[in-house]
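Let's study today's protein:

:::
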Amino acid sequence: MEEDIQYSTVEFKCGASAPKKNKEEDVVYSQVVPKKVFPPAPPNQNEKINSDIKTGKPKGKKGNAPEVQASGSRFHLLFCLGIICFLLCVSIIIVIIYFTLETNNQKQNLSNLESKNEQLTLEKRLLQYQTEDMKMNVTKLENQTEQLTLEKMIFENQTKEMTVNMTILQTQNENLRNNSDKLNRMKEAIFKYSTFPVDLFCPDKVCQTCPKDWIQFQESCYFFNHFISQWKTWDESRQLCQSYNSDLVVISSIEEQTFVKSKIKYYYDEWHGYWIGLRRINNNWIWVDNSQDTLGYWKNPGSSDNFVHIVDKSPLKQSWVQIRNGFQNKFICEIKAFIF
């Protein structure tokens, strides 16, 4: 048979009122299971026992069993409440310890983070200082680079200027050397003349190889009297040539004969020509430089006349005409070229 479950109500009579129950407070029920100490009572007797417990009236020996039963129930209830309170206290202590440890751990972590933050802040400042320092160094290096570039450009310009000056000095030196050599050659050339005609060769202080209107051939200058309208005798022609520090032409080679023949011009008739510096002395044909003639390009050999002129309308080697001194012709002067 299933055992009957009995419920009991506990009343506190020590002057303290039972704690007020919150509306939301749970109702605790205690179940007392008898261990067959007492035989099951009829329903009317159980009700009577419950009423007696509520009123607190002692009932002799028959009422002791329910009172012991109620006392055991209170003990078990209090024991359970104590265990619950102990467990709650332990739980609260554990929670407090946990939160305390966790709080300390968080504080330690916060302190570590703050230290790291301070360290990072210091490192950041240090990096900022280093960055500023590097910027200043870069600016300084850029300024130095600009200064060096400017100095390099100045040195390059100075080098170019010095190179130009050196080239100018070299050119001047070369010109001076050439002028010196030229002066030495000029000196040697001047010494070839018994009297150097400065006005003739160096008009306006600028020396020339041949005087104006004279024609150079090899080492001599020749003046062909094309422009003087008044013709002259052989003596007059020689005097005029000598006034120019020259003399009548001396033809000493076939090349010079060819040159002279190519420059003379036909005028008046075939017997008029240009006086040359050849004459007969003691039956010998002598040039004005006292050299004896060896060519003999005669047009009229065997003539008794003692002076010679050259004509145009005749063969190259038959163009010298023997004629008297009083005959008037044009003339050809010759002077050494001023080669230096």
